[in-house]
Amino acid sequence: MEELSKVFIPDHVEKKWTSKWLDDCCFDRIVDNSKESFCVLMPPPNVTGVLHMGHLLNQTLQDAFARIARHCNKCATWIPGTDHAGISLQVKVEKELIKNGINLKTIEREKFLEHAGAWRDKHGGVILSQLKSLGVSCDFKNQVHTLDGGYSRGVLTAFVELYKRGYIYRGKRIVNWCPKTLTALSDEEVTMKPQKSKLYYVQYDIVERPGRSIEISTTRPETIMGDVAVAVNPEDERYKNLIGLHCKRPLNVMEIPIIADNAVDKNFGTGALKITPAHDSVDFAVGQRHNLPIIDILNPDGTLNARAGDEFIGLDRFTAREKIAEKLQAMGALSKVEEYENNIGFSERGNVPIEPRLSEQWFLKYPKVDESKRAVSEGFIKFYPKHWEKTYLHWLDNIRDWCISRQLWWGHRIPVWYKKNSDRSDSNNWHVSVDGPSDIENWERDEDVLDTWASSWIWPFGVFGWPDQEKMNEKSFQYFYPTNVLVTGPDIIFFWVARMIIASMEFMGPEKKSLSDKEIKERIPFENVYFTGIIRDKLGRKMSKSLGNSPEPLDLIAKYGADGLRFGILLSAPSGQDLIFNEENLKLGRNFCNKLWNAFRFSRINRSYTPYTKISLADIIAKISTADLDIDDHAILLNLIKFCSTFEGQVKNFEINAAINSISSFFWNEYCDWYVEASKSRLKDGNKTVAAVHDIIMRQLLLLLNPFIPFITDELWNVGERNQRSMQNVYCETSKDLRAAFDCLNLDKTSIGVVLQLKEFLNLSRRLISQSQVELKERMLLHICPKTEIAEEILRNYISKLQRLIGIEKIDFTDEILQLPSIQTPLGIVYLQVAKVNSVEEKKKLAWEIERLSKLIRLNEIQLSSREFLTRAPAHIIEGTKKMLSENTSRREELRKILSTM
RNA sequence: GGGGAAUUAGCUCAGUUGGUUAGAGCAUCAGCAUGACACGCUGGGGGUCGCUGGUUCGAGUCCAGUAUUUCCCACCA
């Protein structure tokens, strides 16, 4: 017998199994066509990232799904990878270069990319190795990086195809410009934040009406020099007679027209709006409608340029704002300034207000929008929790073209070439292909790269080498696609989830304008999307580096063990809700593992056994002699089936938190607290049948728990085995299998109910003792007055267990009413033998209980006297109420009898 | 402005299609070193289920309204 430590020490098993799993190639992609396939798609973490709290939950869930599939006899693979993280990595590399004294303005693109690549190779992928210590079972040998050669070809192919199919165009538009990182951003990368600002009221003199002016209101006086008109609502009575006239722009003085446009809200400010087409998207649209010129007065970095006028050149937009306000004030053109709160778009990365900027960019008009909606609304792809479907569908309903070009170097360079010295706006001078033109010396490639999300959106098939058929065969695309489950956060539902669905609809089959339901079903990238909650701190704030409220995951693993951490985090993650992170829950996880460890230790103490690696369920059952099974054995085996069935349902519905709770309560309450205690002496006596029952329960628990806590379970599974090997592919019997396997045992279904009664009897007896404040060292005696003959038989059969479980010297039977402290149980009345009876106290207790019962009886009586209740309620409810009434009444009678004798 | 989610014990949450006296864990209180486990065992206390109406024999559960919290989406300068 191997000695197991008294306390589970994670460190002793984690490292061993981490390397063993990898050495034994446990997670390699091996296709077995006789099995059903199962594929988990890992959301590729940023190559710049390190393991954070969110990953723990996310990765644990993915791992659990993959491992559960393996125990269900499926051929499972989990594809890992990393994202090149466009802006994020570029910013990091730039910082490092500056630190090393390298001038970013003069460095060449190729040189920069060399540095960036080196940075990635050095720091990137840390996260995947960190994940290993969490015990993830992903296929490390097939990890994919979004800038890998093969994957890149996929990204560019998608671009080229979409261009050919007419979905990609180049245009000069107002885009979200980040003045800090100097690139365009998509609408999704802009977050609105309420900001305290000021609303300035400015007078523009009317040219045709000397002495009169029109008052406009603006939050951005620094753009006045870019004004090309003043607009009013055509229905606005105040201004109707001014339409068509002109006013004077107060700075860089110029005459500009007063125009009418429906975009203007009569009720906001003065009802007159200055039009600056270069610096506002609404204004741009108005400008287009009225054929107005465009005056861009800002540099890309947000400073003012020469068109703003000499005195403002080079000023930052916010400094200029104050200066211009002062100047307007001095001129007498500023009539008032109001405090004002409005929503300003911020660049997520740069954390500065974005600048609406007119520039030449590449745009994608999304293909297969309707199909992508149907993929979800028709249920081909299921979201958990379901309510995210609405968010998804709403986004698709209001979808707008996607600006996919970024003014960066790090990323997939746009596969478009322009003839040298030609007009780039003329598409006749373009070449669009993955490999470029053959006479490349006559062409210049577009400088921009693609938005990172325009590369990760092909992830579900890009990881299989799409569009390279040979590679796809090699990677078993046919077998694993569509993937089964994607676990991710709802914060990237638009960024990523929706776009992956769109890309799959477009590319996972021949080019078609529209798709039938059948075709949609064939193209979906994944069948289920599980959205996790966001991990928050005790104050409900998001975990973030800047707040410093995020614990270091590796420290937590060291403190609680990977298994404890995994179990604890699943325990605290209610499905579909954000979770408040509390280290206490990790303690619970650690405690659970320790309890499992000790329960296992106990079940094998002082006896010979065969390791689980060498014995099947049938083998164990064969060791049972049916005659030796007692009521507790019957009940625990039946409860095992019941619990497994519940558990299976919960897992199937992705209710992982509930599943964890079920398994925890079966193991801890049913098995440890009841069965282990009840069967202790028989096990100690060497009863083989009891040992086998323990083995059945423990074996099943290990199989069910392995996906959640893989280290400890693999260790226990292998206790006694010299050539240890992972249990990950051992088939886990379902509740149905168990029922069939237990058929030969003739389990008695009534045992569950009887054991419940015994539990309550035990609980109440203990309460009686604990409340009576007798000295424990005192020799105690209980007298039982059984309710019925059947009750007496049950109790007599169980008497020795009762004595041990209650921890008393002796129990005897009586049919008299005794003047002793007593308690009513479903099986009869229990009296505690004490030296001195405090009769006042006892009478009070009895009276209180009689009163309580009387209240209940009254309620029952009222209900049963209602004709409506009797005619409309279903029979079993009426029966139940009657039964309750009679039980309560007879209980009350018993108590009254006792009371009357005192 | 539109939409989603939440509101049940001091805390974190369960509560399936309406049905008998609303559950769990943590925390708390009391007792126990009982031959696996003090990361443990036993027992106790603690809730008019956000609020107001409605439907129903019966509502934590269904409907309407309302309040608070929170997250998305949206071009009022």
Task: Tell me what you see in this structure.
- This protein has 902 residues and is of the alpha/beta class.
- Helices cover 44% and strands 16% of the residues.
- It has 31 helices and 29 strands.
- The strands form nine sheets. A five-stranded parallel beta sheet has the order 2-1-22-23-15, covered by helices on one side. A four-stranded antiparallel beta sheet has the order 6-5-14-16. Strands 10-11-9-12 form a four-stranded mixed beta sheet, covered by helices on one side.
- α23 runs antiparallel to α24 (710-717).
- The protein is elongated, with a radius of gyration of 37 Å.
- The structure holds one RNA strand of 77 nucleotides.
What are the salient characteristics of this protein?
elongated, 44% helix, 29 strands, single chain, five-stranded parallel β-sheet, RNA-binding, 902 residues, alpha/beta
Strand content: 15-25%
The chain-level structural class is alpha/beta
Indicate the percent of residues in helices: 40-55%
The Cα radius of gyration reads: 37 Å
Number of helices: 31
Question: Main sheet, how many strands, which sense, barrel?
Answer: 5 strands, parallel
Distance between the termini: 59 Å
By DSSP, the count of extended strands is 29
What are the segments in which pLDDT stays under 50 over at least 5 consecutive residues?
none
What would you say about this model in short?
With 902 residues, this protein is an alpha/beta fold.
